[in-house]
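User: Show me an example of a complex going from sequences to structure tokens.

Assistant: Sure. Here are the input components:
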Amino acid sequence: MPRDDDMEPLERLLNLVGLLLETERPMTFEEIRRILPAYGGDNLDSAKRKFERDKDVLREYGVPLEMRGTDVWDVEQGYTIPKERYYLPEIAFTPEEVTALFVAAQSTSEETAAAQGVRKLLYGADGGILAGAETGPLVAGSDTRGARVIAAADAAGARRRIRFGYRTSQGVSSERDVDAYGVVFRGGHWYLVGRDREREAIRAFRLSRCTTELRDAGKGTTPPEGFSAIDHVEAGPWQDVAEDRAIVAVAPGTVVLVESTFPGVERRSERDDGWIVVAIPAADEQALASMLLQFGADVEALEPPSLRGEVIRRLEAFADA
Amino acid sequence: MPERRRSPTTAERLGRMLVIVPYLIQHPGTSVAAASTLFDVPADQLRRDLDLLFLSGLPPYGPGDLIDVDVDEDGNVWISMADHFARPLRLTRPEALAVSLRATELLATPGIPEAPALASALAKLRDALGPDTLGDPTGIEAAAAGSPPPHLPALRAAAADHRRVRISYTAASTGEASERDIEPEAVFASAGRWYVVAWDRSVDGERVFRADRVSRVEETGVGFSPRGLEGAGRPLYTPGDHDVAVRLLLRPGARWVAEYYATTDVVAREDGSVEATLPARQTAWVARLVLRLGSDAEVLGPEELRAQTRAIAASALARYGR
């Protein structure tokens, strides 16, 4: 019950939210003060300061506190919390969907925004189902702090221009100035895709290679017609949906390793010596030759002849060393 | 729940009340314990905050205007007179983006059983929150997932039920297949690949296995008591006392090695290359990695690794009749 000046701040805030949600018309501070004795007392300045602090707390938690004219003449400004901006809209989730969101929000990172967001969605769900879903995170997440990925997605969604320091995979560092268009998750990494203003080209940046925070630099631009962020993040050369197939013989015990390394591998036949002949989708012969060397003497490149020749050339460089 | 957390600020307490109270109103009779687990709030803090809720209400704050909170002797919560808190606060833009990003990570991993439900939940969320909260929904994408490892369901089931299984496993470090009796405790995905954390009885130690290199899973009919091995978020390689410290010079084309593996003592050189130390239980796989990197890398030590690399290159050349 609102009594006096020294009530708990949480109680004061709960009353303030309730009052401003239910009020028919915006209320001035004077009116709020008359109704909520927590802001009363003789010292107007200290009451005002308290109210200002409380407003900040509400906004920090996303409570949409607005100032509006108290009547059509806008003579006086008052406070209100519009219901349509405060309340979560009705979303008819199935129990499976809420459980899936709950599982997704389980995270190994310090970033709690996803968990906080999902908790807001639980009110329509059955707690019994969820208790069983708490088995710890299923996915280790990316190599980038959640806050930076959120900042990148935020900039891309709002079509902002951002600046940041960046180090390429080759170790070259520079300052980048980019119109953010989208974010892409590939192979455990988050990438920001956008227009590099200096290079006048669309580029992808692995967020774990940013050397500074992302800084907002004003309004950005709109991506070109038909733009798709994912087209700008390269897959490994052997992951391409290449027409070409390299034919490689693999020692029986190594087939599992080869299959887990190259997506799209097909077993073709078995040689007399027990080795398995496989076909690997290959767009980039150099990259494939390099990858095959990782299997040492347990693979033999058969076709095309240029691939075989490249593997031999690389091996000879080592044997001669 | 470990009691290491600092005490929450008033803002945090308000934020969680605006989320927990709607749940308690929608689910009358929820126990304090259940709500405490679900919302990750210590039970004593939750009780204290509910006591304060009891003191709040709407004007004119007569006895009939205050929120009624009743916690019965079994610890079940009943809330009434709080219609204005019957629905939660909207998700903020960072929260909605975070949910969307986490879901996208999960959906990019093949073999997540919850994936279809997650995809439809995400679509509903985007529709309901609209572009103001979520921005342009086409701006968040993930690369198409491959196919899940064939034995993933069997491994997940064994971990969930604490059953010891015998697996055929091909280790990348040796390139050899072996039979092992393992006690799987956690199964998780990282960077699109699935891993199994288990106690390997054949070496009597903790090991992390890649699920796609398991070619067979056989029941042993034996259960086990979990040792509490760490799951998702752990380093994928557990350094051991007998590891060899391999020192590599990585030129720009091979710098990714320092990022990809758990390397230490990384020193950048002026020409853009780096020196890094790679701990390895066995060096054969490092020798093959060095073959792969070619002129982009150089072994600085130990000398035996250089010899091993030459030997593997020579035996591979023999395959080509050289």
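The lines above are the inputs; the final block is the predicted structure for all two components together. The longest strand of chain A covers residues 173-186.
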